[in-house]
Design a protein that fits this description.
The protein has about 240 residues and is mainly α. The protein is about 75% helix and about 0% strand. The chain has 2 domains: about 60 residues, no CATH class; about 170 residues, Up-down Bundle (Fumarate Reductase Cytochrome B subunit), CATH 1.20.950. The protein has a two-stranded antiparallel ribbon with strand order 1-2. It is found in: Cell membrane.
């Protein structure tokens, strides 16, 4: 006789997607630590002065720290490019289809569900039902869209910040310098946007919905959790005979 209290688990992520998630998390942490160590001027400071001093001392100077940061970034870009090329149709395109918010109506719908969800965390609007959610809820879709676009900005601006001074003559064309400065602004702004989103992501994964953390560790998630939190996705899986 089966125990009805035992959670029924279903695989929702392939192992390579799980590995890619943790690779992304780990290398972003290294990029954050090294990146915040690079900027050390009095005029522009994003972290306390001790951190750039510590990191630049640890790596034997700012040039070595910049090189380390840039190599890590190029590894990050390269691994993602390869992952996309080899998993475009089976993982990447379905993920983008589910997570990207590209129309005003989708944005309004997702913002509405996110606001209701957040207010309910503070004991408000408890009687207001959250609209049925797909594979990703409104907050996850908005966060995912922001992180994807910010990651593209980080990749392109980062490449220019590293290779621009090496291959372009900034003294001959002031436009190169202007692009460099605005690239730096866009780069740092994107870092803080992503960092804000990741803090929220970690909180929800650990505190509010630990089932999602389990899915990112093993690839499996509780079917009853899906039925309650991701009804539209549950219905799709049921139609496909997977639950």
């Amino acid at each position: 006789m089966s125990d009805t209290n035992t959670p029924r688990m279903i695989q929702v992520r392939e192992k390579k997607s799980v590995y890619m998630h943790w690779f992304n998390a780990g290398i972003r942490l290294l990029l954050l630590l090294t990146g915040f160590g690079i900027i050390s001027g009095e005029l522009v400071r994003v972290v306390p002065a001790f951190w750039p001093e510590f990191m630049q001392g640890l790596f034997g100077g700012n040039e070595n720290l910049i090189l380390t940061h840039s190599v890590l970034a190029m590894i990050w870009i390269g691994v993602f490019v390869l992952f996309i090329l080899f998993n475009l149709t089976n993982i990447v395109l379905p993920f983008l289809k589910n997570v990207l918010v590209l129309t005003p109506s989708a944005a309004i719908r997702d913002v509405k569900s996110m606001v209701i969800n957040l207010l309910q965390l503070f004991g408000l609007m408890k009687d207001v039902p959250i609209p049925p959610q797909g594979r990703y809820n409104g907050a996850q879709r908005l966060l995912g869209t922001m992180i994807i676009f910010c990651s593209l900005v980080l990749a392109f601006t980062g490449l220019y910040l590293f290779f621009g001074p090496q291959f372009l003559n900034f003294s001959e064309n002031p436009l190169y310098g202007a692009i460099f400065r605005w690239s730096l602004v866009a780069h740092i702004s994107s870092v803080f946007l992503v960092l804000t989103g990741i803090v929220a992501h970690i909180y929800f994964a650990i505190v509010e919905e630990p089932e999602c953390m389990e899915a990112m560790k093993s690839g499996y998630i509780d079917v009853d959790f899906l039925k309650h939190h991701n009804k539209l996705w549950y219905d799709e899986l049921k139609q496909e005979g997977k639950v």
